[in-house]
From TrEMBL, chains A, B, C, D:
Descriptive protein name: 3-hydroxy-3-methylglutaryl-coenzyme A reductase
Keyword annotations of the record: Oxidoreductase
Zinc-finger as UniProt keyword: no
InterPro entries in UniProt: HMG_CoA_Rdtase, HMG_CoA_Rdtase_cat_sf, HMG_CoA_Rdtase_NAD(P)-bd_sf, HMG_CoA_Rdtase_sub-bd_dom_sf
PANTHER family: 3-HYDROXY-3-METHYLGLUTARYL-COENZYME A REDUCTASE (PTHR10572)
Organism from which the protein derives: Microbacterium telephonicum
Protein family per UniProt: Belongs to the HMG-CoA reductase family.
């Protein structure tokens, strides 16, 4: 039996952006958790009250797949690792021959005993690139096995990629788009809109996001709830939303500047695309168009724009929740109020 | 502007279950990634060919919230931690007074310098319990602050909970339902249905899921793609799907037994509910009813049933993908084939 | 061929202590890295200029060993886990029968597929307890296997203990002594002695220890160099210094209080003993006596005193290094200076 | 007061080596834990019974220091990161001008909000390189600040290095020597010498080292007790033994090959040197000479040899302990026996 699961969706904002993406942009959030809408909405309102709004920087982009080979022994695996890395140009040609959009840009190897993990990094244009890297990896494995009869096929994916898993490798070697969103909020706006102060938000961020995450045993992650915003915008824009697992690993950082609040969200692992699986649903297509992510640009530019908007959306929701948590009782009150309002159709 | 994002959904299975849930059960999967349906379907078919099918054990259930207090100094924080832990019965009464369903069952404290983190664990009946623990935590904080004038409010959530984040604390102290799904597959079925052998699946699980995850820097997690199945069934059953972040931390384990395959998925952090936000959408309500999770049972039993079904679904998809990855070229071939079939409306 | 490796050793301090240990205490540091002595010495000097000195709190103490059993299937493993936990009193008697000093205080179980990990926590008096828990675990395994014929021996140690490894479980469930050392330093002393300010040390701690450790992918740890002080005092007091691996997982936390500096080191996993292997070397025995850790006290009190002194020593070195790193060029300059001075015999 | 702490030291072996280091080599182990000697000795005996002995591969070598800068905002930090990376040749010249031995080989940057972490990787010849990279980093920071007036000094070390801390970055980007030691042991030798079988050792390694470490929340590490061997040989050879913290992060891997045992230890982070602090003690100098690590070779070759010997030593101890743990009761029995023997002066 087939059908559809309809997720309630609202457009929130507009958010004011500058830096790598300029302008005001509303964003669609598909979620069962309705308090998310006004929460992101409050952050968006703050962004519009600040001249530059949220400044976004797209730092890097790549998609990865790690293949696994077995060798007769460790020394052979190490020698093969060196040879494969040295042949990157030749292997890049293998990729280009199979795909117009995929482009091999880096190879990282790791040897454990006689196991050889080879992690390929590719540019994948405007696609998130899951299928593109798998297809490329198939061709690369075949080429490598042809050149290295001493190796055997281990797996098309060796978990050193790593897809939809919270790991350290993605942030350190890169996977997906790496984006930083930042805002400098005058003290008066912090007080009026967020009912807090820079000092209190900084203290909370240090105690909760940094120290609290440390004792929880978090991994390369220090934030309050990136996963909520990511899920909602990923669903509304046709993304493979299971990528919120690694996408939600990121760092909220705040400092006080003469009473003003410098607040940033650093998201090293945003897997987003504007073409590919899920993007041809009419609702999704419409959403991507309204987000300005279906324009005729150089390959990758639409997805970069989407990544920047996603990061700004995350910042809006993160800022709003942290501010609320500086005040005893505010979180629950607003949840109850909002859910009541939402149920009443507001 | 509001509306709906319709996620394509198919019912897959039935899966044969035994242990804490007995019978055959189809499951709904809402996803943009259509290859997931036949992949889980293959695992379900295997389960029906085995007499006991997939045996599920629900090991534990609880929902948590960690509050944060500040003390003037560490010694005061330590003393308060001891006093609060000792007063658990009194604090349990505070919770019971505010809610019929919530029940305080445990308190864990951790002190860092003069910061005091207090992690409350509650039974929350058939609800996943996000709001219930926040409401309870508010009452608990008020009660604690009234008794401890030396403490100050820090935050209603101190990230030691931890919600929608990949951490170590959830698996070790518990959060959500902890479930193990296991199946013993005769060698002939492994060969016919999964085109592999027990020995090859065991080797792949060790090399990829255990060693590969280790070098990736994974955290208390060793599996191929739990996140995919979790997202799909969470969306189709109205769950807060951002909880796949911690839900997907789990361990696939396989051993060979005289040529047969003993294969298990251990999922310590499944956050699921059968009542609450998102559960009153008609499609979701219908799904929960068909899953047998809206029966008139003792509080928690419907959610336990759902958790068990979710774990069995994860096992079906995990088994199928690992088997495919033991064969060079099979993964891409089946992806391409399935996507073509799906696009053709099959 | 046997002999001795003589590690250069200096007594540093005295450190002024209050809280669970009161008085002034010099400490022995055995190290090849001579700059450590003046660095800890500077911290000690600061402690003597503050009325309360360093306030130490010993929060918890226990030693652990996790045994591993195998069951025919997961359901059997889960049932056994429950039965074993329920029999803690009976198992405690097994431990007491084998040892005067060991006392079973807690059992934690974790089941992965059909593997059953049982983690025993014991009081071990003044011994660090490595051998005591192994001996106890042997008796406990025998008792459990006698009662559970459905289980088989897996391993006397299942790495869920975990000994001499950086893991999350030790901090969360406890292993060794958990100690917090804290000091409140007036602004003038920060300036005069540490050539810095509270604000600058707080900023550095947040940026380097908290954010820097997060991006490095640290695990439940946020400090500059606990390992250095731990190694030196462990060697000088006859400890099993390989325990610095988990011992060095800890959190430095700093806040500004009206210009003064509130600075703390939280060390959840200090494995120390005042009796046992290595403690009967004359130099070690002399060191333990001078530290006041060979007194006639209730079991565990001498080791608790040692743990508190160790934590205070860590604080002295951590404070001094962080202060130095707030100033460009100071670290290298002092290293060069000190090594020259040391070489000159100062 | 100054003096010496004499650590009991025995020479164990010889170990038979092949691959990057060829021959038989005894090793010095300084430890308070005397059972370590016969344990490593048993592994050494096994190595001599196998024709190739232990095959060692040195995969990589580098030392790192991560500096920290602050920028006015994230966009500026990102721009500076790109500019600094692009200027690697110019910065390499800065390093060469300050040191004959240090050579800059790589730069990795990471930006969090407006914080810029710059991680420098250097060749440091036969020195472990702690001081060399600090000295180089000072020069590099000065050069960068001169070129980038928009940046400010943050810290000479930003914890993204990372020194004497268990993190993910060291294994992934490299720090110290990366070494693999491997041995293929015929079934008969496994049985006679280790009283076990390949199948049982493989099963134990998977269950304990891989699964057990996973549930413990270990980080890029899966072994039984690397820290013990590392500490003992580090102390005896004048190393900065606090580096066992990251050094002990490594992976033991075992497979059965037609009844024989293929067993390896992969150690990505061995920080060792044959010159520098601690190396001029007569006992240490003598040890390094006997290890063949004071020969007149190209820079780095002596330290590489030492790293290979260290890894082989780790393998001997790891193999012996794992074999013992496959047998119920053996560990304690041998501990008791050995300690009695040792106490009796054997």
């Amino acid at each position: 039996m087939t059908g559809e699961t309809p997720i309630p969706t609202s457009w929130v904002g507009p958010i004011r952006l500058s830096g790598d993406v300029v302008g005001e942009q509303s964003v669609p959030l598909a979620t069962y958790e309705s308090p998310l809408w006004p929460s992101v909405g409050r952050g968006a309102r703050v962004s519009r009250l600040v001249e530059d709004g949220i400044r976004v920087s797209v730092v890097d982009e790549r998609m990865t797949r790690s293949t696994l080979f077995t060798a007769p022994d460790a020394a052979t695996a190490v020698a093969a690792a060196r040879a494969i890395t040295a042949r990157i140009d030749e292997l890049a040609a293998v990729v280009s021959a199979r795909s117009r959009h995929a482009q091999l840009i880096d190879i990282d190897t790791e040897v454990v005993g006689h196991l050889l993990f080879v992690r390929f990094a590719l540019r994948t244009g405007d696609a998130s690139g899951h299928n593109m890297v798998t297809l490329a990896a198939e061709g690369l494995m075949a080429a490598i096995l042809a050149n290295h009869p001493e190796l055997e096929y281990g797996s098309i994916s060796g978990n050193f990629c790593s897809d939809k898993k919270a790991t350290a490798v993605n942030g350190i070697l890169g996977r997906g788009r790496s984006v930083i969103a930042e805002i400098l909020i005058p003290a008066a706006i912090v007080e009026d809109q967020l009912r807090s102060t820079a000092a209190r938000i900084v203290a909370l961020n240090t105690r909760k996001n940094l120290v609290g995450s440390t004792i929880a045993g978090a991994l390369r992650s220090s934030n309050a709830h990136y996963a909520n915003m990511l899920l909602a915008i990923y669903l509304a824009t046709g993304q493979d939303a299971a990528n919120i697992v690694e996408g939600s690993q990121g760092i909220t950082y705040a400092e006080e500047r003469d009473g003003d609040l410098l607040f940033s969200c650093t998201l090293p692992n945003l897997i987003v695309g504007t073409v590919g699986n899920g993007k041809d649903l009419p609702v999704v297509e419409d959403a991507l168009q309204r987000l300005g992510c279906r324009e005729d640009r150089e390959p990758g530019a639409n997805a970069r724009r989407l990544a920047a908007i996603v990061a700004a959306t995350v910042l809006c929701g993160e800022l709003s929740l942290l501010a609320a948590q500086t005040n005893q009782g505010e979180l629950m009150q607003s949840h109850l109020l909002l859910e009541r309002r939402t149920e009443a159709g507001a």
